[in-house]
Every structure is written in C-alpha cells, then in structure tokens.
Amino acid sequence: MKLWGGRFTKETNQLVFNFNESLSFDRKFYKQDIRGSLAHVRMLGKQGIISEDEMNTIINGLEGILADLNSGALDFDHSEDIHSFVEAHLIERVGDAGKKLHTGRSRNDQVALDMKLYTRDEIVEINELLKDLLSSLLKVMEENTETFMPGFTHLQKAQPITLAHHFGAYFEMFKRDRSRLDDIYNRMNLCPLGSGALAGTTYPLDREYTAELLEFDGPTLNSMDSVSDRDYLIELMSALSTIMMHLSRFCEEIIIWNSNEYRFVNIDDSYSTGSSIMPQKKNPDIAELIRGKTGRVYGALTSILTTMKGIPLAYNKDMQEDKEFAFDAIDTVKGCILLFTGMIDTMTFNKDIMENSTKNGFTNATDAADYLVNHGVPFRDAHGIVGQLVLFCEEKKISLDDMTLEEYKAISPVFEEDIYDAISLQTCVDKRLTIGAPSPEAMKKVITIYKDYLSK
Ligand code: ARG
Questions:
Q1: Which are the contacts of 108, defined by CB distance < 8 A and separation ≥ 6?
Q2: Residue 89 designated active-site
Q3: Which helix (H) or strand (E) holds 186?
Q4: Where residue 6 falls among pLDDT bands split at 50, 70, 90?
Q5: Ligand 1: distance of its center to the CA of 111 in Å?
Q6: Measured from the CA of 22, which atom of ligand 1 is nearest?
Q7: Does 163 have pLDDT greater than 90?
Q8: What is the residue with the minimal CA distance to atom 4 of ligand 1?
Q9: How far apart are CA 345 and CA 355, in angstroms?
C-alpha cells in the first residue's frame, strides 16, 4: 500500500520506485519501528486523540505484526519502506483503527526515531563486545607481567617491556573507545518523536510521555533539527572508525609477530588459513581482513559526512543514504571485535623467543647510560660512551651483557662489576616503577584498576 497516492494521477515509474524504496534495507529496524509506533499510539490514547478501544486494537495489531515478523510467518513485500509496510499490514489486520496510527506523526520524525533507537541498541551491543575483548586482554596481561619483550620505536628495538605492558596499551585504547560510545549514547538520547514533518503538530501530543516510554532522557527541543539531525550517526561512525584503527594497529602487530622472522606468537590453527599452492603456509588472514575492513568503516564516516554537508533544513531524501553505510559499518565492527577477541583467546606466545629478542637488540643501552649517569657521568657523555659500546658489540656480534669487565673499562673506567646487574633484563624492567611503566609492580597496580573497571 502506498501512503501518498491521493494527489497523483499516474502510477510511479518502476525504475523510480526501485530507486526510491528503502524497505530492502530499513527492514533491519522493524523492531524499533514497531516499538516507536507502540509508544506513539499509547500516547495518542492517553491524550484522548484516539479512543482507548482504538488504541488497544492498534497495539494488538502491531504486536501481532511484530510476532509474525519475528517468527517468519510474515514476509517483507514490495512496500516503499518499513513505515508503509507496517502501516499497511496494520490496516489490513485491524481495519479502520489502523488508519489512525499515523495521527500527529510524519515519516520524518518516525525515521529519525527508528534510526536513533536502532543506533542506541547497537551502541550497547558494541560496548559489550568491547568489554569482552578487554576481559581477554586483561587475562593475557595478568599471566604475562614478567614476560619480557622488546618495546619498539620506528619498528626498531628500543627498550625492554613486558607482554602485559604491550597489551595494556591496547586496553587503554579500547577503554577510551567504550567511553566515546557512552558519550555518544548520552548526547543522542533525546526523543525526536512528535516533531512531525518539521514543524511539530497541532495535536496535543505528550512528547515527554513518549520519550519516557522509549527510555529517552526527554524530548528534543527543536522540531526542525529533530528530523534532520544525523550528528549522532557521524559521531558513531567516527567512534567506530577509531575502534577499527585500534584493531587494525593491533592486527598489524600480530601479523608482524606471527611472521617467520619474529615468531613471537602463534595464531591458532582455528583462526588461520592455508594457501592453495604452498603447503607450508599458515596465513594470518583474519588479522589482515580486520585491517582491510577498516577502510570500509572509514568509508561510512566519509559517506555520511559528505551526504549531510549540503542539505538545507529540514528533512531531505538524501538522508535515506545514511542507513546502508551505517548498518554496514556497525555490522563490520561487531564482527571484527568478535573475531579479534577469539583470535586473542586462542593465540599462544613464544615467551623464550620474545625474551631472546629483547636481549639481542641493545634494548638495555639506555640503562647502561643511566648507570654511568648514576656514577656521576653527564648524560650526554654517557650517551656517547654507550654508543661506543654498541659499536664494539656490533663488530664482535655480541650483546652488552656478553662484554668482559676489561672491555667495559677500556671504553670507560667508571664501569664496575655491578654493571651486569644494572643492565640485566630483569633490572631494566623492574626499575621502571612509575605508574604506567612496565615493571611488574607498576603493572599489577594498573591491573587492579582494570579489574575494578571491568567489574562495573
Ligand atoms: N525511507 C525514508 C528515509 O530513510 C523515510 C523517511 C521518508 N520521508 C519522506 N518525507 N519521504 O529517510
């Protein structure tokens, strides 16, 4: 059924219909559409705009449609959009009372509401998925506060850290992502229903009541803005892009760590794929795909930003273009977080290889310089002296720990026997005690904070 045939004298061209329709994708929020209609109709009944009988008839009809869509007893047809689909079926089922559902409402405030309800539900889900991911990261952290690995800058070995510390960096990122989602939820949580097409309505609607029924903090305060605001979607696409950027960086590291050269980690067989030609291959496809799908989510952000930039107030049909990209980005992010969490849960760590790699990369050079500083050598001179030590070791293909005391003393007489302890991996990590640093002592404090955070 068409909602608007009255003033037309010709049938819609089929291509125009196909181009214009949105049921093929806005069916995704049929539950939210019906939930919104149920709230609207309860308010119409409470305000005496429709009779109590009519209200109950419509409620029953809508609940029946919802149940039948959920069970599959009712299929989507060729309606223009989800709004016309539900209204048409309501009228078919309950007759004239159904024709009153749309009193005091426009599809413009309806779609604004549906999209907000849908987005709100998805934000909650994504937030939970991130929480599960954080629990997985925390488990690795708790088990690895003493697992040494090199920390990198410029992808060159820099200073020793621990696996717990490295994972902790990502814990912070995903924690921020969750708080971004919370912010968006709180900012968008105002109900547009009752804004009509753009200028409110002349019916005595109770907008506070519908807002309350739908668990919003209250009604929106400008009807023009209400029907044409998609800021929250742009914010969400931006937050999702940031989540993907974090996942993608982590994936990039896992791909490197899983490479034949590094072998820091083993991605589980159940999360790897093979090659059709090279029998020896076990590829990190999941990590690569997540890295690749990041582009898709960035695309959604750019797309919605661009769609919105030239739209005069209030509603314009351009806005229908918000949905497919937003849906795709939301589904992509949910899938990626889920897969990534599974990959982390099943991944194993080659702790010996990580530790050896830390020993072999002069990651304790800064600590050797600090040793000199503690013995009265100005830092700039100490830097130069340790530079000479590194040069010496590189020529002999040994590490700082392998040099004899005589060799040390030949470069600087300040060195004594205690240099070995001062530059041992254990000392290098243990001495980094400030909060946020990698020592097991500092990490354990942070882990306690994270546990508390996840328990809420
Ligand atoms: N399918 C439309 C959308 O997604 C619903 C709103 C239609 N409103 C209108 N005035 N044509 O934006």
A1: 195, 196, 197, 198, 227, 314, 315
A2: no
A3: helix 163-188
A4: confident
A5: 7
A6: 1
A7: yes
A8: 320
A9: 22
Cα–Cα distance for residue pair 56/70, rounded to 1 Å: 21
Please report the atom of ligand 1 found closest to the CA of residue 319.
12
Is the pLDDT score of 454 beyond 90?
yes
Residue type, 354: M
Q: Give the distance (Å) from ligand 1 centre to CA of residue 33.
A: 13
Query: Is pLDDT above 80 for 135?
Result: yes
Query: Over 90: is that where the pLDDT of 149 sits?
Result: yes
pLDDT tier for residue 103 given thresholds of 50, 70 and 90: very high
pLDDT at 196: 98
Across the chain, what does the average pLDDT equal?
97
> What are 80's two structure tokens?
């223009």
**Which amino acid is present at 274?**
G
Kindly state the average pLDDT of the residues 174-188: 98
- The tens digit of pLDDT for each residue in 284-300 reads 999 999 999 999 999 99
Buried b (16+ CB within 10 A) or exposed e, 216-240: beebbeebebbbbbbebbbbbbbbb
Q: Exposed, middle or buried: residue 18 (CB in 10 Å: 0-12, 13-18, 19+)?
A: exposed
Q: How far apart are CA 107 and CA 33, in angstroms?
A: 10
Q: Which H or E element spans position 83?
A: helix 82-94
Give the model's pLDDT for residue 347.
Answer: 97
Q: Is the pLDDT of residue 102 over 90?
A: yes
| Distance from Cα 170 to the centre of ligand 1, integer Å | 40
58 C-alpha to center of ligand 1: Å? 23
Residues paired with 151 in a beta bridge = 159
Report the pocket of ligand 1 as residue ranges, CB < 6 Å: 22, 26, 81, 107-108, 111, 315, 317, 319-320
Nearest protein Cα to ligand 1, atom 2: 320
Q: What would the two tokens of residue 282 be?
A: 């076990």
Residue nearest to atom 12 of ligand 1 (CA): 320
Check whether 204 has a pLDDT greater than 80.
yes
Q: How close is the Cα of 20 to the center of ligand 1, in Å?
A: 9
DSSP state of 191: B
Return the half-sphere exposure (C-beta side, CA atoms, 13 A cut-off) of residue 276: 0
* 71 part of the active site: no
Token pair of 348 as six digits: 């194993």
Q: Is the pLDDT of residue 3 over 80?
A: no
Write down the catalytic residue from 24, 179, 259, 275: 275
Characterize the bridge pairing of strands 265-266 and 156-162. unpaired
- Number of Cβ within a 10 Å radius of residue 186: 10
pLDDT surpassing 80 at residue 2: no
